[in-house]
Specification:
Layout: H1 2-14, H2 16-26, H3 31-47, H4 55-71, H5 80-97, H6 102-110, H7 118-146, H8 149-181
Helix pairs in contact: 1-3, 2-8, 3-4, 4-5, 5-7, 6-7, 7-8
Transmembrane segments: 29-46, 53-71, 77-97, 128-148, 154-174
Keywords: Membrane, Transmembrane, Transmembrane helix
Protein name: DNA gyrase subunit B
């Protein structure tokens, strides 16, 4: 039961931009902020003993939702993608200081016997991810401040995911090819 609730909350958080767009366009004011507060509280309670690295982004999302609800200003909900991207930047960036990098850890899940020559390459890929998170955070800020809700939803709910998918998939394909050559 607990896994099902975690999976559901993960899926809902993944669909956050679409949920915000739908909620701001079709729900009474405050309804979405209240629902997001409850969802984030639930997720925070479930994460309490699991991945503590999610605590800060979940608390930030809870704060933004609560501010939106209390201040009756829906725009606070638009800043959550910035928090997520900066959190990921912090996580990936920190792994550059304390090896192995996040990308190396993920690569070793599929290929535990990576050659030593792969470490510098995977370190560079981690830097590339950091760059993408900077771009995504910047675009999330720009769309939250200066763009329409539709443009915000398009970037944060589709384009950012496509960019991350292209980077992950392209890097994986290149790494497979690269490993065959070494």
């Amino acid at each position: 039961m607990m896994q099902a609730v975690k999976l559901l909350t993960f899926a809902l958080l993944l669909a956050y931009p679409l949920a915000v767009w739908l909620g701001l366009n079709y729900l009474p004011p405050g309804t979405l902020a209240l629902a997001l507060c409850l969802l984030l509280l639930l997720r925070l309670a479930l994460e309490k003993q699991q991945l503590k690295l999610l605590t800060l982004p979940l608390l930030a999302g809870l704060l933004l939702s609560a501010l939106s609800l209390l201040a009756k200003q829906q725009h606070w909900l638009l800043y959550y993608p910035i928090v997520i991207n900066l959190s990921m930047l912090g996580l990936f960036g920190y792994s550059l200081l304390r090896e192995p990098t996040i990308v190396e850890r993920l690569a070793r899940l599929q290929e535990p016997d990576l050659p030593a020559e792969a470490r510098p390459y995977l370190r560079n890929v981690t830097r590339l991810w950091c760059g993408l998170f900077v771009i995504n955070a910047g675009m999330a800020f720009y769309t939250a401040q200066f763009a329409s809700l539709e443009a915000w939803t398009l970037y944060n709910g589709l384009i950012a995911y496509l960019l991350m998918g292209l980077l992950a998939g392209g890097e994986w394909l290149y790494r497979k090819h690269w490993l065959k050559r070494t």
